[in-house]
Structure formats: C-alpha cells, structure tokens
Amino acid sequence: MNASLTPDNAAGMFAVTAATPAPTDADSEMRIRKSAAAIDLAGDLFDQATARIHEFHRAISDKPIAMVNAALGPAAKPVTTVHNAITDFVYGSVRAVGWSVLKAGAFSLKMAAPVMQFKPETDRFDRNLDAVASAASGLLGDKLAASGNELAPVMGFYKDRQKLPADAMELAGLYPDAQSHLVIFVHGLCCNEDCWWMYAKHNDGMSYGDFLQMQGGRTALYIRYNTGLQIRTNGRRLMSELKALVAAWPVKVERITLVGHSMGGLVSRVLIDEAQRKSPELMRLIEDLVCIGSPHEGAPLARISAKGEKLLDAFDLSRPISKVLGVRSRGVRNLEQGLGTTPVSRYTDVRVHLIGSTVGTFEQPGIAETVGDGLVQLSSSLSADAVPQAASAYEGRHHMHLLNDAKIREQLDQLTRPVLTQ
C-alpha cells in the first residue's frame, strides 16, 4: 500500500489558465498577493512539519520493530511491511491534502488579486502582514527570495509602507523640508522599519527619527531589507540604495549618520567597508555609525542553534528536530559569529558609537556576559573589534527596548546635532 497523493504529484492540479482581467488598485492587488504568498508559505511549512513528524514516528517505531525482526527473523517481515505501508499512507495523505488545500487557496487568491478590491479601514492589516513577512524573511528569507515568494522584503528606503523612488521631483514632494544631513535607520533580524516605533508610547509617541527631525537639521530615513540574506549581501545592496538616494535627494547631502539596531549595525558596518573600497564619494559623507545592541562577536542563540543542529543530527530520534534547525536562513547563520566570518576594515574617518545593555544591573556581571540584553551579550555589543569612538552601556533594558529609549534618544540627538559654524 503506497500513498498515491503527494505534494510533488499534486502540483499538476493547479496547471490551469486564467484570463487576465483589467488591472485594479495597485495597493489592493499587492495586499492580496502578499496574503496569497503567506498562505503559500503556510502550505510549505505544513508540508515540512508533517514530514518531520512522520520521520519522528518512524524513528520511534523502528526501534521495537528492529527488536521484533531480530527475535522472529523472516516471520516478522509481513508485520513490518504492513506497519510501514500504513504509516506512510496516513502521513502521506495528510501531508498531501493539507499542502494541496493551502496551495489551492493561495493560487485562487493570487489569481483573483487583479479583480478584487481589498481596502482595510485602518493600516493595521498591512502592518500585521508586513510583520509576518519580516518575521518569515528572518527565518527563511534566502529561500523566499530564491523561490520568488512575494513575502520576501524588497531592499529600499520606505515611507508610509511605500518604497521611495530614486527620483528628485518625487522625493521633493515627499520631503518638502528635506535636510542635507540624513540619518539612516537600519533595523535588525525579523523586523522592518515599523520596529523603530516600538515603545514609542513611552516617548511622546515618537521614534528616534521623529524626535531628531523635530529638533531640526536632520531628515530621518528608514531602510527595509530581507534579513534572511547574508549580511554581506545586504550591506552591498544598502550601499547601492544609499548612493542612488543621495544622487536623487532634493538638496545636496553633506552628512550621513547610520543607526543600526542588532543585525542592522552589522549591515551598516559592511556598507561602510564597501564604501571605503568602492565609493569614496559616499564615504566622505558618512561621519557617524551608531550600533545599538549589535552582536559584533555573535549572538548566543544563533550559536546554540548551530550546535544543537549538529548534536541532534547524531541520533535517530532527534534527527527530525535537527532538520528543523537546519532550515534557518543565511542571515541567522551569520549571527553565529557576528562579523567574524564577514571581516571588515577598521575605520579611520568614521566615528563609531556602540550601545549595549543588560537585563540585569551592572552589579550582576554574570547576567551581562551570559544573558546580556536577552539576545546579545554586553561584551559582544561593545566589542573592541568595532574600533569604537565611544561606548555606552545601559542596565535594566532588553534587546527590543533599545529601539526606543529616552536616554538613547538624547544620546542620538547630541551626536547628530548640526555643527555650528562661527
């Protein structure tokens, strides 16, 4: 008895032709297409989860079956064959049916996107959808990009959920008060530009960028990128995006400050390294780099995942779990050693400011060096390898609190204030 329906042979059921309808609202269509992509991803995850459960079942059942085979010899073969056939059929059917239903739903929704109109009353739906896409990209972003899944974030500068055009006239309309000093905010793993407004309710409802703009002399810009790709890849792409933006900015850019949270600090360091070697005109504009909670020497959880994958792969019963850990993206794998596997130059013309925290107090060094801010150890966020101009440590703050903190906000304001000329 064999399962006759699998994700592989079920794919043919979607080979249909649909008439191309007249185009409708672009935002509505993209919203629906992203929803379809999320359902499509759910189908793949269901397929993989079912496969791992099947493997775990077989790993457990193979132990007593082996004992029975050893005791009864050839007489036990029919029992073994029937057991394996039944379990393969059951799991194969569940896997294929679940996968097919989700894929069919995604396919139907995608086909309907050009003719459907979906405009939520608030932006909550879009924010949640982007949050799902960002989280998925952190874990599986390299695979999403390779498969063309529309959940994979597109690198670029974003304002009000829209990618900014590299066009001077359009940018002038979007930024009528454009300043010559750009402060670029680069988010971390599994996030997007919305993360900078986390805990904003504790700080007058403003992000760091909002506050800096209110104080005058600076324009805040926010990057969005696929955090599942290699850090080096994102750093190179960010350099290209920044060059294009500078060329199209409504006023002449005279100063750039990079502010990166977590992985964003490492991506920013790669950008500077690339600019040092390939774009001296851009390099002359970059004066400050601020790394907030960045794992310059790696993050413990990323290392634990790597060691766990290797350890669990050594045993039959735990090998299915090892495969789950092995799915993690290249971006996550890069965080095992921070920039240890992505060497960058030491800076001479850029002021580097490192900010880290511990969930404990400074009187608890053990917490700072084991738990750190919950994701990054204090020593890693204040690593001397980054050749800092200044380093600041805060106590009683976890990793995400660093995205919007009153004291850090004041610190950013001080170091980015316009230089007064006599």
Walk me through what this model shows.
This protein is of the alpha/beta class and 422 residues long. The chain folds into 2 domains: 23-114; 156-416, Alpha/Beta hydrolase fold, catalytic domain (Rossmann fold, 3-Layer(aba) Sandwich). It is 50% helix and 11% strand. Strands 2-1-4-3-5-6-7-8 form an 8-stranded mixed β-sheet, sandwiched between helices. Strand 1 (156-159) and strand 2 (162-163) form a beta hairpin. The protein is globular, with a radius of gyration of 25 Å. The chain starts with 6 loop residues before the first helix and ends in a 6-residue tail after the last helix. Mean pLDDT is 78; it is low at 1-23.
Name the overall outline: globular
Helicity level: 40-55%
Question: Average pLDDT across residues?
Answer: 78
CATH superfamily of the largest domain: Alpha/Beta hydrolase fold, catalytic domain
Under the CATH scheme, the architecture of the largest domain is 3-Layer(aba) Sandwich
Structural class determined from secondary elements: alpha/beta
Q: Write down how many β-strands occur, each being a DSSP E stretch of 2 or more residues.
A: 8
What are the low-pLDDT stretches, counting only 5+ consecutive residues below 50? Answer: 1-23
- What gyration radius follows from the Cα positions, in whole Å? 25 Å
Number of domains: 2
CATH topology of the largest domain: Rossmann fold
The SSE string, one letter per element, is HHHHEEHEHEHEHHEHHHEHHEH
The main sheet orders its strands as 2-1-4-3-5-6-7-8
Please give the CATH class of the largest domain.
Answer: Alpha Beta
> How is the main sheet built?
8 strands, mixed
In whole angstroms, the N-to-C terminal distance is 88 Å
Number of helices, where a helix is a run of at least 4 consecutive DSSP H or I residues: 15
Beta fraction of the residues? 5-15%
